[in-house]
């Protein structure tokens, strides 16, 4: 008697989806969004054109997936640095140091995909994503400042919302300076000093 066993539809994927998206990140880094073609992605991701469209979609869809995956990785690492069990000053310094280290990582493009590539993309969904990511970062910093108030590191009238935005602006500035080639050593020194500036008392 011959058993009628069901076969899985289609061929099993011969590539790692996560790895392919990481490779796509480097493609967008090297050429910018507008400069990238589907052929570039096929070659860079190591995925055949039919599989690329079937699994990832068109260039815009791939970029959005790359952006989300990149933001998740960066956000998780930044949160780990910021919410560690140490003084508020050291947490802010760790957050800014992480920004510098990420933007100057050896073997990767300098800067940050969210700050150096994505803002140039003329797409409403991309812009909304960036605004949401920026708001999330500021909210995380506000939370850390409020924890600092509870711990007695800063006074109750500390301008939490204003300083949270200032820290994100400092992180953005450090990233852009990394992008234009400022040495890591210089940026790390500036990150340390910036942490002290952020915690200065409110001016009367």
TrEMBL record:
SUPFAM superfamilies: Homeodomain-like, Tetracyclin repressor-like, C-terminal domain. PROSITE patterns: HTH_TETR_2. GO terms for molecular function: DNA binding. Keywords: DNA-binding, Transcription, Transcription regulation. InterPro entries: Homeodomain-like_sf, HTH_TetR, Tet_transcr_reg_TetR-rel_C_sf. It holds the Pfam family TetR_N. Residues 37-56 bind DNA. The keyword Cell cycle does not apply. Transmembrane segments: none annotated. Residues 14-74 form the HTH tetR-type domain. PANTHER family: HTH-TYPE TRANSCRIPTIONAL REGULATOR YJDC (PTHR47506:SF1), TRANSCRIPTIONAL REGULATORY PROTEIN (PTHR47506). This is Transcriptional regulator, TetR family.
